[in-house]
Write a structure and sequence with these properties.
three-stranded mixed β-sheet; 120 residues; globular; binds zinc ion; 5 helices; 53% helix; mainly alpha
Length: 120
Protein backbone atom coordinates (compact mmCIF):
# COMPACT_ATOMS: atom_id res chain seq x y z
CA UNK A 1 0.00 0.00 0.00
CA UNK A 2 1.53 3.27 -1.13
CA UNK A 3 1.23 6.27 1.17
CA UNK A 4 3.21 9.18 2.55
CA UNK A 5 3.06 10.00 6.27
CA UNK A 6 3.85 13.53 7.46
CA UNK A 7 3.73 14.97 10.97
CA UNK A 8 2.30 18.47 10.68
CA UNK A 9 -0.55 20.69 11.84
CA UNK A 10 -1.05 22.13 8.36
CA UNK A 11 -4.24 21.14 6.61
CA UNK A 12 -5.66 19.05 9.47
CA UNK A 13 -9.24 20.04 10.38
CA UNK A 14 -9.75 21.45 13.86
CA UNK A 15 -10.54 18.73 16.37
CA UNK A 16 -8.96 15.98 14.26
CA UNK A 17 -5.68 14.20 15.05
CA UNK A 18 -5.07 13.22 11.46
CA UNK A 19 -6.19 13.71 7.92
CA UNK A 20 -5.87 11.77 4.72
CA UNK A 21 -6.20 12.93 1.15
CA UNK A 22 -5.42 10.63 -1.73
CA UNK A 23 -2.30 8.75 -0.52
CA UNK A 24 -1.08 11.48 1.87
CA UNK A 25 -1.51 11.01 5.62
CA UNK A 26 -1.01 13.99 7.91
CA UNK A 27 -0.82 13.47 11.67
CA UNK A 28 -0.43 16.18 14.31
CA UNK A 29 3.10 16.06 15.82
CA UNK A 30 1.73 15.99 19.38
CA UNK A 31 0.01 12.68 18.56
CA UNK A 32 3.41 10.97 18.74
CA UNK A 33 3.14 11.26 22.53
CA UNK A 34 -0.41 9.92 22.75
CA UNK A 35 -0.96 6.28 23.76
CA UNK A 36 -3.28 5.86 20.78
CA UNK A 37 -0.68 7.10 18.27
CA UNK A 38 -0.46 3.84 16.31
CA UNK A 39 -4.25 3.61 16.27
CA UNK A 40 -4.50 7.03 14.64
CA UNK A 41 -2.08 5.94 11.93
CA UNK A 42 -4.00 2.68 11.47
CA UNK A 43 -7.22 4.69 11.08
CA UNK A 44 -5.69 6.81 8.34
CA UNK A 45 -4.19 3.75 6.65
CA UNK A 46 -7.72 2.33 6.30
CA UNK A 47 -8.68 5.51 4.43
CA UNK A 48 -5.68 4.97 2.15
CA UNK A 49 -6.90 1.41 1.45
CA UNK A 50 -10.39 2.76 0.74
CA UNK A 51 -8.85 5.26 -1.68
CA UNK A 52 -6.73 2.70 -3.54
CA UNK A 53 -9.66 0.26 -3.77
CA UNK A 54 -11.40 2.65 -6.14
CA UNK A 55 -9.71 6.09 -6.26
CA UNK A 56 -12.24 7.96 -8.37
CA UNK A 57 -15.23 6.51 -6.51
CA UNK A 58 -13.68 7.36 -3.15
CA UNK A 59 -12.89 10.95 -4.19
CA UNK A 60 -16.43 11.45 -5.45
CA UNK A 61 -18.26 9.78 -2.57
CA UNK A 62 -16.26 10.47 0.59
CA UNK A 63 -17.61 13.57 2.32
CA UNK A 64 -20.48 13.91 -0.16
CA UNK A 65 -22.43 10.71 0.39
CA UNK A 66 -23.41 10.25 4.04
CA UNK A 67 -23.86 6.48 3.88
CA UNK A 68 -20.47 5.94 2.18
CA UNK A 69 -18.69 8.39 4.52
CA UNK A 70 -20.13 6.73 7.62
CA UNK A 71 -19.20 3.26 6.34
CA UNK A 72 -15.61 4.46 5.69
CA UNK A 73 -15.31 6.04 9.12
CA UNK A 74 -16.81 3.10 11.02
CA UNK A 75 -14.35 0.77 9.26
CA UNK A 76 -11.42 3.08 10.10
CA UNK A 77 -12.43 3.53 13.75
CA UNK A 78 -12.91 -0.22 14.18
CA UNK A 79 -9.30 -0.67 13.06
CA UNK A 80 -8.20 2.14 15.36
CA UNK A 81 -9.86 0.42 18.33
CA UNK A 82 -7.60 -2.61 17.86
CA UNK A 83 -4.69 -0.45 19.01
CA UNK A 84 -6.30 0.70 22.25
CA UNK A 85 -5.40 -0.96 25.55
CA UNK A 86 -7.72 -3.78 26.55
CA UNK A 87 -8.44 -2.05 29.84
CA UNK A 88 -9.96 0.93 28.04
CA UNK A 89 -13.67 0.98 27.37
CA UNK A 90 -14.20 0.51 23.64
CA UNK A 91 -17.89 1.38 24.02
CA UNK A 92 -16.85 4.63 25.71
CA UNK A 93 -14.59 5.63 22.82
CA UNK A 94 -17.34 4.86 20.33
CA UNK A 95 -20.13 6.75 22.10
CA UNK A 96 -18.09 9.71 23.43
CA UNK A 97 -15.52 10.28 20.72
CA UNK A 98 -15.88 8.34 17.44
CA UNK A 99 -19.66 8.53 16.85
CA UNK A 100 -19.87 12.27 17.70
CA UNK A 101 -16.96 12.91 15.32
CA UNK A 102 -18.71 11.07 12.48
CA UNK A 103 -21.96 12.82 13.40
CA UNK A 104 -20.31 16.25 13.00
CA UNK A 105 -19.05 15.20 9.56
CA UNK A 106 -22.33 13.78 8.29
CA UNK A 107 -25.16 15.29 10.32
CA UNK A 108 -26.42 11.81 11.21
CA UNK A 109 -27.25 11.53 14.94
CA UNK A 110 -24.45 9.96 16.99
CA UNK A 111 -26.85 7.43 18.54
CA UNK A 112 -27.57 6.01 15.07
CA UNK A 113 -23.88 5.81 14.29
CA UNK A 114 -23.11 3.96 17.54
CA UNK A 115 -25.45 1.18 16.34
CA UNK A 116 -23.41 0.80 13.15
CA UNK A 117 -20.35 -0.25 15.16
CA UNK A 118 -22.29 -3.33 16.27
CA UNK A 119 -20.99 -5.45 19.14
CA UNK A 120 -17.24 -5.24 19.47
ZN1 LIG B 1 -11.44 8.85 9.36
Amino acid sequence: MLYTLTYTNDGIPEGADGFTKFWFIKIRPECKRKPGHLGIIAHEQVHIQQFWLNPLWHILMYGRNKKYTIACEVEAYKMQLLYYPYSESKAGYISEDFAPSISRKTGVPAAEIVKMFGNL
